[in-house]
Amino acid sequence: LISYLLFEDDKIVIDESDIPDKTRKGKNNEAEKIHNGLLQSHSMGKSLVSYVTGHAICEGYISSVDEKLTGWDIIENTLYDNQVLIDLLNMQAGEQRYVGERLKPHNDSRLKQHKRINVNTTPLKILMEKYFQNTKKSKPVYNYSALTTNVIMNYVIFKTGDDWEKLLHKVFNEHVKVKDNVYFHQTGQYPLKGSGRYSFYATRYDYLRIAKTIMDDWNNNTCAGKYLKTIYERRISKNITGYKQAASVAGRTKKYGGQFHFDFVGLKKRKILGMDGMGGQQIIIDFEKKRIIVVNTLDQHYNWKKIVYKKIKQLQSN
After folding, report:
1. DSSP conformation class of 180
2. Residue 202 DSSP label
3. pTM for the complete prediction?
4. Confidence at residue 112, expressed as pLDDT on a 0 to 100 scale
């Protein structure tokens, strides 16, 4: 645990940190970007891709969450072509025969036949051309998948064209008003570079600024706030078990909407949004109580139930 922030009553009431001053290796031997205070989001970045997607809709680059993914050559003749955006946002793209948490060993997995292929480091164009041609969509069920988010992100890049960086600047610099540098990662280990990847980097306070802006958008019913409410209304059931033992936002929530986790166990009547990343990265926003928890870690060696879940439950009773 290297950073813990609790925000309420329009101020930070708990502020604890122990951030190393240079890049170190985490539990999974993945370098954590902590130089100059930049902390890696891991899968919390999936939620930030969604937030940027909402702004792309507000700016007119995308018509709505019901827009179909058409006219994009990278996904032609794959299961993603002509899909509705909201299905990808809700992690129900019907790709469970090929990738994702619901993939079973006996299923036809073209990626598993090529063990060195990583959907987070291989450019999307290569993945689609080599491994997803002539694939067919299966039944739309919740299937958590990194590839789905990267398809969404690169679709937004495709739709915004030369304005992609302009959109990011408008979201994070002008709207959120971050104080330091923030950015999404790009794949670049292959000859074809430049594919967007959801992994995000920001300082601990800028993560809080982003969360606070999301909370304000919701409560002020801005265009981005309306997007958040739309994906909340259209969230789906995860249909998974083991909630009581899970030590993460992802494991203690029953529903998923627009790349966010909703409906905490025992708190389903409250409108609480959660973001979750590998190694214990967590952001929780209680829209009604106007409280935010932000946790950054190198790996998950902390009492999640005590400092996150019980704090969430307190938000209900205070």
Report:
1. S
2. E
3. 0.91
4. 58
In order of 9, 29, 235, 281, the CA distances from 21 in angstroms are 31, 18, 39, 19
**CA dist., res. 35 & res. 49, Å (int):** 23
Q: What are phi and psi of 301, to 5 degrees?
A: -115, 65
Are residues 234 and 257 in contact, defined by beta-carbon separation less than 8 angstroms? yes
> Do 43 and 277 meet the contact criterion of CB atoms below 8 Å apart?
yes
pLDDT, tens digit (0-9, with 9 covering 90-100), for 184-241: 987 654 444 457 889 999 999 999 999 999 999 999 999 999 999 999 999 999 987 7
Mean pLDDT, the chain, as a whole number?
88
Distance (Å, rounded) from C-alpha 140 to C-alpha 123? Answer: 25
Q: Which amino acid would we find at residue 29?
A: N
DSSP letters, 280-318, are TEEEEEETTTTEEEEEE-SS--S-HIIIIIHHHHHHHH-
DSSP 248-285: STTTTEEEEETTEEEEETT-TTS-EEEEEETTTEEEEE
Give the contacts of 264 (CB within 8 A, at least 6 positions apart): 249, 252, 253, 254, 270, 272, 274, 312
Tokens of 79: 């299961």
Query: What's the CA gap between 288 and 36, in Å, rounded?
Result: 34
Return the structure tokens found at 205. Answer: 């306070």
Which tokens belong to 198?
């959801």
Tell me which of 266 and 154 has the higher pLDDT. Answer: 154
Q: Which two tokens stand for residue 140?
A: 């739309």
Pairing verdict, β 31-32 and 183-186: unpaired
Q: Which residues pair with 6 in a beta bridge?
A: 14, 293
Specify the pLDDT at position 274.
97
Q: With left for phi above 0 and alpha for psi between -120 and 50, is residue 221 left, alpha or beta?
A: left
What is residue 191's predicted lDDT score, i.e. its pLDDT?
Answer: 40
Other CB atoms closer than 10 Å to residue 171's CB: what's the count?
Answer: 23
